[in-house]
Amino acid sequence: MTPKPIQAWHAYLDKLDPALLHDLLAEDVVFESPVVHTPQVGRSITTKYLLGAAAVLNTPDFRYLNDWFSERSAVLEFTTTIDGITVNGVDMIHWNDAGKITHFKVMIRPLKAINLVHQKMGAMLAAM
Prior knowledge:
CATH architecture: Roll
Number of domains: 1
Distance between the termini: 36 Å
Helix content: 25-40%
Largest sheet: 6 strands, mixed
Strand order of the largest sheet: 2-1-6-5-4-3
CATH topology: Nuclear Transport Factor 2, Chain: A
Shape: globular
Strand content: 35-45%
CATH class: Alpha Beta
Mean pLDDT: 94
Structural class: alpha+beta
Oligomer: single chain
């Protein structure tokens, strides 16, 4: 059975409603990007990164392939295509007892995809 925080994550992705994302994130959430060296701390900056990532990665080809759950964490493997390049990655998500996401780490492969996402995310974040 899919844990409630992951159900809420999927509901956010279906609607791309920033209010749903805000409600899902803990105030002190930590976000780790595949292209930013230091972890980003806090709901505000994490919201900005996740909204940008949704705008870049959520193409018509985006889909989750596999998922693995434990008591308060999940790994969601995804794939998408951007500008003809296949992006394969995982979202590693942890949540607290209240069901709020406390840690969100994204890993992407191959290198060509990382470089493309880095370029597109940089442009997206600069425009926000």
